[in-house]
Design goal:
The protein has about 350 residues and is of the alpha/beta class. It contains 14 helices and 9 strands.
Length: about 350
């Protein structure tokens, strides 16, 4: 652990914790996270940590076959459960308990190098041995939260002291661990989706719950910046692409859906994602069906477009710095006072 600390000093400013989530499997969520983590680490500005929180179907480690076998998220939170049981009732505040438990975890010992030639680290889902599935099913995430609601945000904040970006691969669906990853951990949330109604309906509910929770709970008044990331787009059918994006008569497509969701969450009634979705789309690529190499060159243009917003921390409705105002459609230009708005979910109505 001391050797690891020597190479991971605290950063001058805390990094970002980003959860990648897809409501349904098969959207390319893990592939997107692995490739974007690889791109961020290539910049060598700060260490990057990838976290596989999909305990039921771990897959992130397959992108980094050279990474050592090690315990991971499952074993770490089994230890966390034991620490909470030992310390319950001994601290004056919830935050003091969370700090004591995270300090005792020695979380650094669970990290492994994902690559030897860049500052990229991996926290695996677990050892994935014969007992993994049974132990994962027995871990009660709701009980961990009930015992110490500050635990997960404190853990995320501790990781962010040492990594410029912490990218969390969340389980799909509505499980308790997915809610933790999307609501309690992140400062950013990347929603990877294929353009179909099941995905869009699930994400609509997720965004409402995550931003609503942040705005309604006094201890959770933290920024949460949401990035939609359309994936598996069949660009060979232009008419179908347009229909899924814009819907019929301006309703039903994913662009108006996310403009409405984010506009409501952040109090920006004229929010436009026109320029963002013009650039950010991950096409369907049949060559990746039987294997997903790193980096995925076939998707490089889409990832690079997304990184223009993500790496700079721009809201998806903001103009890119290099884009001159004259090049933008005047109808979709965002008022300057909205461009400067901080991405806080709006407080709930009293």
């Amino acid at each position: 652990m001391d050797h690891l600390r020597l190479h991971l000093p605290e950063l001058p400013a805390a990094g970002e914790v980003t959860t990648f989530y897809s409501y349904k499997g098969g959207a390319g969520r893990t592939m997107a996270l692995a490739n974007l983590g690889h791109m961020l680490a290539c910049r060598r500005t700060a260490p990057v940590l990838l976290v596989d929180w999909d305990l039921e179907a771990p897959g992130l480690h397959y992108y980094f076959p050279g990474a050592a076998q090690a315990a991971g998220v499952l074993e770490l939170f089994e230890e966390c459960r034991d620490q909470l049981q030992e310390r319950v009732g001994r601290y004056a505040s919830e935050q003091a308990l969370a700090d004591a438990v995270v300090d005792a975890l020695r979380w650094e010992q669970y990290l492994v190098r994902a690559c030897d030639d860049r500052p990229l680290w991996l926290l695996r889902a677990g050892r994935c041995d014969g007992s993994h599935a049974e132990r994962a099913a027995m871990l009660d995430w709701q009980s961990l939260f009930d015992a110490c609601p500050a635990l997960f945000r404190t853990f995320a904040a501790r990781l962010a002291r040492h990594f410029g970006h912490v990218l969390v691969d969340a389980r799909s669906g509505r499980a308790d661990c997915a809610a933790i990853c999307t609501t309690l951990l992140p400062t950013r949330l990347v929603l990877v989706f294929a353009p179909n109604r099941q995905n869009l309906d699930g994400l609509q509910d997720l965004v409402s719950r995550a931003t609503g929770y942040r705005s309604c709970h006094e201890d959770e008044q933290r920024p949460l910046l949401v990035y939609p990331l359309p994936s598996r787009i069949d660009t060979s059918n232009e008419g179908q692409c347009t229909l899924w994006r814009r819907g019929a008569d301006g309703a039903g497509g994913y662009q108006p859906l996310f403009e409405g969701l984010l506009g409501q969450a952040y109090g920006l009634p004229w929010l436009s994602l026109e320029a963002y979705f013009d650039a950010v789309q991950l096409p369907h690529c049949a060559s990746l069906a039987c294997g997903e190499p790193l980096p995925a060159l076939a998707l490089q243009q889409g990832y690079s477009a997304f990184m223009q917003w993500f790496s700079e921390g721009l809201c998806p409705w903001q103009r890119l710095p290099q884009a001159a105002p004259a090049t933008l459609n005047h109808h979709h230009a965002l008022p300057l006072e909205q461009e400067r708005t901080v991405y806080w979910p709006m407080p709930a109505a009293i």
